[in-house]
Amino acid sequence: MNHPQTRILTHPYQAGQRILVTSDIHGHPDHLRHVLDAAGFCADDLLVIVGDIVEKGPDSLGTLRYVQELCARGNTTALIGNVDAYRLHMIDTLNADNAEDFYRYLCELRDWCGSSFYEEMARECGYSLSSADDVLAAKDAVTSHFAPELDFLASLPTVLSLGDFVFVHGGLRHEALADNTDCNLFSLTKYDDFANQTPYRFPFHVVVGHWPVALYSDTVQQFNPVFHPEKHIISIDGGCGIKREGQLNLLILPDARCSANEISHIHYDTLRKIRALDAQTESTDSVHINWVHNEIRLISRGEEFSEIEHLYSGKRLSVPTKYLFSDTACRDYTNYCHAVEPGDVLSLYRVTSRGCIVKRNGRMGWYCGAYEELPPA
């Protein structure tokens, strides 16, 4: 198996060519197909996939093969992500000493999303994985039969430079692009909280995935691309495969020399749609409990709702009891209330006795009025 290495690719600039950019597909090929269809992706466009193609979704193998097909057409460039690289490393180093840990990890993925990249490959080779011994026994068949797919994944570049934009899964460690050439691959593909942690204002726009954009706000839970103009960074990971309410984002650049305010975006998720029948006023003071700051103090536990204090913000609020991991931690949640007009179409996430948690234009929040369900698109 080839081992991925840090590689910076420069793509020739073609004036007037539309550039579509997505990242963190995480084994959701239907999401990718839907969002590309919605954008009218065609042979004249260039598609850039900014890493994390596999894992955490229902069909990693299908996603990888679809990305291979897109790249073979000549107008798609895919980059490697930290999950892609780490999965290659795990498969390559699988042995009798670590097979139990590998199997335990596959079981976690099976419980979470019903599948895993390795299990899908093993199944296609005729193996059923019920133990660490099964995992180890399948290795030779998997690495042999899927050599083209694994070699393709390992061959993906780490960084793409195109016009006034640079694309990398995690982030750049140095301000000058060439200075990143000798960086370890994982340091570029896994750069947590890049927009806050990097000290640089880059001389080009850096488009990254990896760090879900919802983590960049302490007041509102939103999944749309986040622009950081003070550092020339655009974060686009919409939480597909990571958050049940997440989405696959597609950034649309009219040209590789365009300005940030010329960029648009669309997204796709699988939440069912409702039409609001009542008006609702937007809340003015909200909190977003996110994965980075999810520590709480439980005040009282109820059957449907519990009262907590969010330690990071110091605010007391009511949360659905199902959102509590324990008495000390809560999953992502916001008490934000949307501004809604009758006729607005909302994406329904959860129905409670107090109203609905919905997504509107990529932003999560509450709607407490009447609604009607819409037929599937």
Kindly state the mean pLDDT as a whole number? Answer: 96
Based on DSSP secondary structure assignment, what is the total number of beta strands? Answer: 21
Please work out how many helical segments DSSP would assign.
9
Helical residue percent?
10-25%
Give a short account of the largest sheet: 6 strands, mixed
β-strand amount: 15-25%
SSE-based structural type: alpha+beta
Radius of gyration: 22 Å
Shape: globular
Regions with little confidence, pLDDT below 50 for 5+ residues: none
Which secondary structure elements does this structure contain, and how are they paired or packed?
Layout: E1 8-10, E2 19-22, H1 29-39, E3 46-50, H2 60-72, E4 76-79, H3 82-92, H4 99-113, H5 117-124, H6 132-145, H7 147-155, E5 159-162, E6 165-168, H8 185-189, H9 194-197, E7 205-208, E8 226-228, E9 233-235, E10 248-253, E11 264-268, E12 272-276, E13 288-289, E14 296-300, E15 305-310, E16 315-320, E17 333-334, E18 345-352, E19 355-360, E20 363-367, E21 371-373
Parallel strand pairs: 1-5, 2-3, 3-4, 6-7, 7-9
Antiparallel strand pairs: 2-10, 5-6, 8-9, 10-11, 12-18, 12-21, 13-17, 14-15, 15-16, 18-19, 19-20
